[in-house]
Write a structure and sequence with these properties.
The complex is a heterodimer. Chain A has a 9-stranded antiparallel β-sheet. By secondary structure, chain A is α+β, with helices and mostly antiparallel strands. In chain A, a hairpin with a 2-residue loop joins strand 2 and strand 3. Helices cover about 65% and strands about 5% of the residues of chain B. Chains A and B meet through strand 5, strand 6 and helix 1 of A and helix 2, helix 5, strand 7, strand 8 and helix 6 of B. Strand 5 of chain A pairs parallel with strand 8 of chain B.
């Protein structure tokens, strides 16, 4: 969104796009995986609606993700392929991480906390910055539009 | 944690302790994580309800009456803003409650829509737990411990709602001195002046507010409504373009942009809007209808300017999206016939979808296009048949009046004029001029 008076900005298709994070996971300890709607058990692949990984939270040098149950155990090493779409310069990188905590949820899902083992700091920081910067833009716009103070 | 943060967390703990909380998110891990965080911050687990979708939350809302709602924007076919409306409807005290969107939807359209509503904060996923905690605490404390500026505005609003406009104006003036950029106070001052019909003062208030903050939604919409009320369409068009640029999600507003573009003869703008419109994936029916109608009006303008090829290009674009909207195609065909472009009109007649071939619009324009090659008697009989089928199209009446005069039956023509005016009152002058002595000669 720009601030000039061109009619081209009145309907801007980019205004309807959202940032999307896609995560694929290989459990290097158990040789299983979750990617693109499929669960992998060694050589075997099974399609499943719940075969997706959801990125929930950033933590210090790690993250909290939601995965199908069961996908991993405490102490397992995961290889995570992370792709950030819907931004001008898409980010795509891999990290390895260790499972620190597992919380079994209903509905066949686990919420797991992982800490990073090997990762490219440049990519990881760029990944975090995408959301921090967008949050800052959103907050500035949101409270300016409302005319109230930022909390 | 700093001492200030410690103090805020302690205040928040006191604030949240008795509060009823609803968390609505399709992602179970998210619901669980948010509930855990709020419990850590002092919420009672028994006071927290978790909902996986809109319907569950909507059903629970009237009885539960939550005082804090944390909600995802995207809830399947419904959105978090729908839940806000349900919350407002279910609880008269809901304005005092805290409603925060915590969402993966980072699109400008979603943020802008939320900013138009009384949402307290908009937090993007994924977040860090510290940033989320800080945002929630600050939003809650701002609600519970408003600044003197906010308190004055609330006081003025109460006076405004009770009809005490002079007190309201004095209170908003007091508020203006309490903030370096008192946009909201300017807006409400303008509202009070508007109610008192002091339109110049109200307009000046909205402009003053926008000078402090050019994207203030309430001032922009207030100014737009005021300019429309004063029939200042050029100014209103400029304002609504600004609104639509900053707040892009509202199809109703885009249709207003198109309507004002037509009203202000900004035809070149319409062609550009069309180009951009084609790039949008989510177009609703109303927007399609308006863009088609605007293209037709734009095409008519170029026909009047003798720029036939440009007009045909615009009609072509409109017809591509008109699909099953016979009214748009009818307008194109009638316009082309009036411009003596029968061949082109026949081409557009073929674009009516087969499912619309029984529609009044199709039957009427097919008759209008074909009747000139019919003998007088046959033309009149066909036209009357359509009228008897309840198809009261102004063009059919115009032809019948003309044909009756040609056949030397002015009495029948006069009866037709009366029926035509009754059924199509907008064309009264056209029908009356069709009765003039030279009208039947052509």
């Amino acid at each position: 969104m720009t601030d000039n008076d061109s009619p081209d900005d009145i309907i801007n298709p980019n205004d309807f796009k959202s940032i999307d994070v896609q995560v694929m996971m290989i459990n290097e300890t158990s040789h299983t995986g979750v990617m693109k709607g499929q669960r992998m058990f060694g050589e075997e692949q099974q399609k499943a609606a719940s075969a997706y990984v959801k990125f929930l939270e950033f933590i210090d040098k790690g993250m909290i993700i939601e995965v199908p149950h069961p996908s991993c155990g405490k102490g397992h090493t995961l290889c995570l392929d992370i792709q950030v779409c819907g931004i001008k310069n898409e980010i795509h990188f891999e990290v390895t991480a260790r499972v620190m905590e597992i919380e079994n949820l209903d509905e066949g899902r686990d919420r797991i906390k992982v800490t990073l083992l090997t990762y490219d700091e440049l990519f990881w920081n760029a990944f975090k910055s995408v959301f921090q910067n967008r949050q800052q833009e959103v907050t500035e716009f949101f409270f300016a539009a409302k005319g109230t103070e930022k909390p | 944690m700093t001492p200030a943060q410690d103090k805020n967390e302690a205040l928040f703990r006191k604030y949240i302790d008795p509060k009823k909380i609803m968390i609505t998110d399709p992602c179970m891990g998210m619901r669980a994580g948010l509930a855990k965080m709020l419990t850590d911050m002092g919420a009672r687990p028994g006071n927290i309800k978790l909902c996986r979708d809109y319907d569950t939350a909507d059903q629970l809302m009237p009885a539960f009456k939550p005082e804090i709602v944390l909600c995802e924007y995207d809830l399947g076919p419904r959105c978090g803003l729908d839940l806000l409306q349900a919350h407002r409807a279910a609880n008269p005290e809901s304005k005092k409650s805290l409603f925060i969107l915590i969402t993966s939807n980072s699109s400008q359209s979603a943020v802008a829509q939320a900013a138009e509503e009384d949402i307290d904060n908009y937090i993007l996923k994924p977040y860090t737990i510290d940033s989320l905690r800080t945002s929630i605490v600050r939003s809650a404390l701002m609600k519970d411990y408003p600044t003197p500026y906010q308190s004055s505005i609330d006081e003025g609003k109460t006076a405004l709602e009770s009809g005490d406009y002079d007190t309201a104006i004095a209170t908003f003036e007091k508020a203006m001195k309490l903030d370096p950029k008192p946009t909201l106070a300017c807006f409400y001052h303008g509202q009070a002046n508007l109610i008192k019909e002091l339109l110049d003062f109200a307009q000046s208030d909205y402009n003053k507010g926008l000078a402090y903050n050019r994207i203030h939604y309430k001032c922009l919409t207030g100014l737009f409504d005021l300019l429309m009320k004063r029939s200042m369409h050029e100014g209103a068009y400029d304002v609504v373009k600004r609104i639509a640029r900053y707040f892009p999600a509202n199809p109703q507003r885009l249709t207003t942009v198109l309507r004002l573009a037509v009203m202000t003869n900004s035809f070149e703008d319409i062609e550009r809007y069309y180009q951009i419109f084609t790039g949008i994936e989510t177009r609703n029916e109303e927007l399609i209808k308006y863009i088609c109608a605007a293209l037709v009006v734009c095409g008519k303008f170029y026909l009047r300017k003798e720029s036939k090829s440009r007009a045909l290009v615009l009609f072509d674009k409109a017809s591509m999206y008109a699909g099953e909207k016979p009214a748009i195609l009818r307008e194109i065909v009638i316009t082309l016939i009036a411009a003596n472009m029968q061949k082109e009109a026949s081409g557009f007649l073929k674009r009516f979808a087969s499912c619309t071939h029984e529609s009044p619009e199709f039957l009427a324009v097919r008759y209008v296009l074909q009747e000139s090659s019919m003998p007088e008697v046959e033309s009149i009989a066909e036209g009357e048949k359509l009228l008897s089928m309840g198809i009261h199209d102004a063009e059919i009446y115009k032809i019948l009046i003309k044909r009756c005069l040609q056949s030397g039956d002015p009495e029948k023509a006069q009866n037709l004029v009366r029926a035509a005016i009754a059924n199509c009152p907008n064309y009264e002058k056209d029908f009356e001029s069709a009765m003039k002595p030279d009208a039947g000669q052509g």
